[in-house]
Amino acid sequence: MNKLFLVLGAVALVASLQSCKMKTTESAVAGDAASKVYVPPGKYDEFYNFVSGGFSGQVTVYGLPSGRLLKVIPVFSVFPENGYGYSEETKAMLNTTNGLVQWDDQHHLELSQTNGIHDGRWLFANANNTPRVARIDLKTFKTTEILQIPNSGGNHSSPFITENTEYVVAGTRFSVPLGNADVPISSFKKNFKSTASFISVDKNSGHMNIAFQIILPGMNLDLSHAGKGPSHDWFFFSSYNTEQAYTLLEVNASQKDKDFIVAVNWKKAEEYAKAGKGHKMATAYAHNTYDEDKQTATSVIEKEVLLLDPKDCPDMVYMIPCPKSPHGTDVDPTGEYIVGSGKLAALIPVFSFTKIIKAIKDKQFEGNYYGIPVIKYEAALHGEVKKPGLGPLHTEFDGRGNAYTSMFLSSEVVKWRLSDLKVLDRAPTFYSTGHLMVPGGDTRKPYGKYLVAYNKITKDRYLPTGPELCQSAQLFDISGDKMQLLLDFPTIGEPHYGQAIPASIIKDQQVKYYDINKNHNKYVSMGEKKANVVRTGNRVDVYMTAIRSHLVPDNIEGVFVGDEVYFHVTNLEQDWDVPHGFAVKNSPTADLLIMPGETLTIKFNADKQGIFPFYCTDFCSALHQEMSGYLRVSPKGSNVPLKFGTGVIAPATADATETVAK
Amino acid sequence: MKKLTNPGKASIVVIILFLSTLWVLPMWRIDLRAPQYPGGLSMKIWINDVKGDVDIINGLNHYIGMSTIHKKDFPEFVFLPTTMAIFMSLGLGVLLLNRKVGYYIWTGMFAFIGVFSFYDFYKWEYNYGHNLNPEAPIKVPGMSYQPPLFGYKKLLNFEVLSQPDIAGWFYIGAGVLLVSITIYEWKKNMAK
Fold first, then answer.
1. ipTM of this predicted complex?
2. Torsions phi, psi for A221 (to 5 deg)
3. pLDDT tens digits for A600-641?
4. Do residues B170 and B177 lie in contact, with contact meaning Cβ atoms separated by under 8 Å?
5. Which residues, listed in sequence order, are joined to residue A105 by a DSSP beta bridge?
6. Does pLDDT of A386 surpass 90?
7. What is the DSSP string of A544-575?
8. Which residues of A are less than 8 Å from B138 in CB distance?
9. A621–B56 C-beta distance less than 8 A
10. Alpha helices, DSSP H only, in B21-148?
11. Where do the H-state alpha helices sit in A197-298?
């Protein structure tokens, strides 16, 4: 009998071992997930999801809930696919004081807002590496403005915006000396500064201008978000490396218990700027704008920036201690709670705007940091979320009193309640989520149905593709008490922050084609009869038209080695989704993708003698393959007259009468 | 000489009003649909113009060698409004004259104009669909592209639907009214 028990006990033990197996990811998807993300062919997604392209420098657009890629919008990197950054019309968009900078590291996106709600007009994007801010028009999904940021060593806490898009901010991740002064790196404390730039946005045109830059002590500004409602006048930036390390930051910038959330009263700053409390600094930064009317970008070098020093501007900046090396600083929809996610902290501090204002009024300061008052931690604190997970990074809100924080180290999303700071639910992510996004989750009215986690690591989640793997996004349904994983899909580049807007807000404002009669491009050909070839010295301008299914002119002679040939191609079509492409043989850079009613120019250097075919690169019609022509490049000094046309058939003897000079 | 009944007199005013819609609304429409044109294309024929997606239709039809449609190529856009204006002013004459026989002649004119217009429309459609450029890139043996005079037809990848537009229905209404009143007047005459 005892033996039997022993055997049974052993069996039970082995059986229980079985249940001690490591958890697998396969159990993660359950229930009706498939039906919730299924968008039938021909049907539209519910949301546009704009996702940062990270080191690709571009912005991507996905549909939610399907996760289908709709578009890559070229912003900070050249894009051979459609000629962005290569065509003469768009080159200037990538101009900087360091010449053409044709790549960048694009991290964060913000949709324009009116009264704290998405208004569907523009999308703003930051460039981290060569500090820049871009504005994308949501009628054309085109980058229409890029503004360089001076006095910045890296534009990370950007392009967060105020509730009426009054300002877009740009906070420096890497402090540098103002005015590019040549100083020893070890003089960091003395000479290095971080700056918070406030870029004003014109209500009607969207045109950006640096209104003022607030000079802050040398430290790293990480992320930011504007206040809302009662906290409308304020902007909150997280900071790390308040240790002011300039080497081995991994260790040296992780020493202090607390860094700061920098609270900026931008209304006050605006008043100080107006009252002449700032001083103008001579500098240089590029300001590039795309003119819709002329279909051409121009770059202007701005020469001056207004600096505001907190020393001269009392009550403008306060510091709130925040554990420990905070990353995201996020403001809840009511504008009352400011959540600092200390990425090395074991808790999430939640600050109360009411308490911050009271603390300032009662002068509850624990000291100052380079003259900026530091509010007592407890005086500003609403409370702490205890044991939320490891490595909290970012928080978004659902508009129902809940917050969702991404945990990089414990690789999960944690849902918690703002009122009592209780953790309500946690869902694993695959793997190591950075940003997360609830549609409208950083506005006054989150749509609150979905949550997307943007993951840094995918490992085994997709079919392996050699050592370089994709990064990914994961979609959750957050309409119930428990978060439900619905879908994951790969992304282009590294997805940092994203934004999502209901499709209904911008779907119907989309431009279908450009009105040819409103095309004021300098090099437009208004009809085939205006097609022309003009020589000026060694510059040859080809005014070409494209319409299904021929190019005018399609035979060009009288071009010589050493000439610079500019093909100005006008797409004469006036119908939806009839672009034409254009490329010349051996073109070293890009083709052109010309929308109906648009004119684009590509430069071709005639370096070698030969016959160079050119053709339409976008399958436009049943006769697309026939949409082609020839450029003849003759040796320098040849006796070949300038000749061009389409449909002109030369007499059979023509070639015999022509001589080529040796 | 027999005088017109009151309904007969009223009908003249109504018919003139009906026909005046020809100057403010399209009279005929030809709708086209193909896989690549989910929203469809539409050509609207007015008494003195042709509007709608004419440019797009012209662009497509050059593949199969059909001629392009231009307002200036249609003398009808001058003749038709002139004819209709004369017809309408003659109606006023019939009203002033107040004789049944005037009304009968007026109806006869309408029938003639109507039949002739449709014959002219058919003839144009026939030429438009049959007179193809011999150098057209796409030639389908035995295929012609005459649009339907009235109703539905499938032409290569396009489905075509040809039907009256609003002013066209008013025109038809005017015709129905003319014939009905003619019969009415005739019967009244017989009854006496």
1. 0.79
2. -80, 130
3. 999 999 999 999 999 999 999 989 999 999 999 999 999 999
4. no
5. none
6. yes
7. EEEETTEEES-EEEEEETT-EEEEEEEE---S
8. 622
9. no
10. 54-61, 76-97, 100-130
11. 249-252, 266-274
Which residues contact residue B123 at a Cβ distance below 8 angstroms, ignoring those fewer than 6 apart? none
pTM: 0.90
CA pair distance A37, A51, nearest whole angstrom: 18
What's the CA gap between A525 and A150, in Å, rounded?
40
Please give the Cα distance from A117 to A111 (Å, whole number): 9
E strand or H helix that includes residue A533: strand A532-536
A575, A580, A627, best to mutate vs chain B, most B CBs in 10 Å: A575
Check: CB of residue A506 under 8 Å from CB of residue A120. yes
Which positions ≥6 away from B113 have C-beta within 8 Å?
Answer: B83, B84, B87
CA–CA–CA angle A247, A253, A259 (5° rounding): 150
Q: Which CATH fold would you assign to the domain B6-191? A: Butyryl-CoA Dehydrogenase, subunit A; domain 3 (1.20.140)
- Residue pair A216/A178 in contact (Cβ under 8 Å)? The answer is no
**Contact indicator for A74, A85 with CB cutoff of 8 Å:** yes
CA distance A62 to chain B (A): 23
Distance (Å, rounded) from C-alpha A176 to C-alpha A258? 23
- pLDDT over 50 (residue A127): yes
| Sheet with strand A69-73: strands edge to edge | A69-73, A59-64, A47-52, A498-502
For residues A113 and A66, what is the distance between their CA atoms, to the nearest angstrom?
Answer: 25
Query: Confidence class of residue A20 from pLDDT cuts 50, 70 and 90?
Result: low
Distances in whole angstroms, Cα of residue A276 to Cα of each of A281, A283, A313: 13, 19, 11
Q: Please tell me if residue A366 touches chain B, with a CB cutoff of 8 Å.
A: no
Looking at chain A, which residue has its C-alpha nearest residue B137? Answer: A623
Q: How far is CA A481 from CA A25, A30, A429, A487, in A?
A: 21, 15, 18, 18
Give the phi and the psi of residue B69 in degrees, each rounded to 5. -95, 125
A350 by DSSP, 3-state: which?
strand
Express each pLDDT in A242-285 by its tens digit. 999 999 999 998 889 999 999 999 999 999 999 999 999 999 99
Interchain proximity A573–B137, CB inside 8 Å: no
Closest chain A residue by Cα to residue B53: A575
In whole angstroms, give the CA distance from residue A577 to residue A622. 15
At A500, the amino acid letter reads: A
The residues spanned by each domain of chain B are 6-191
Cis amide bond preceding A472, omega within 30: no
The DSSP result for A285-325, as a single string, is EEEEEEETTTTEEEEEEEEEEEEE-GGGSTTSEEEEEEESS
Other C-beta atoms within 10 Å of A190: how many? 11
Of A574, A621, A622, the CB nearest to B55: A574
* Facing residue for B63 by CB, picked from A547, A573, A623: A623
Q: Which of A475, A470, A459, A464 is closest to A494 using CA atoms?
A: A470
B52 Cα to chain A: minimum distance (Å): 12
**What are residue B180's phi and psi, to 5 degrees?**
-60, -45
Q: Check B137 against A626: CB less than 8 A apart.
A: yes
Contact A598, A519 (CB under 8 A): yes
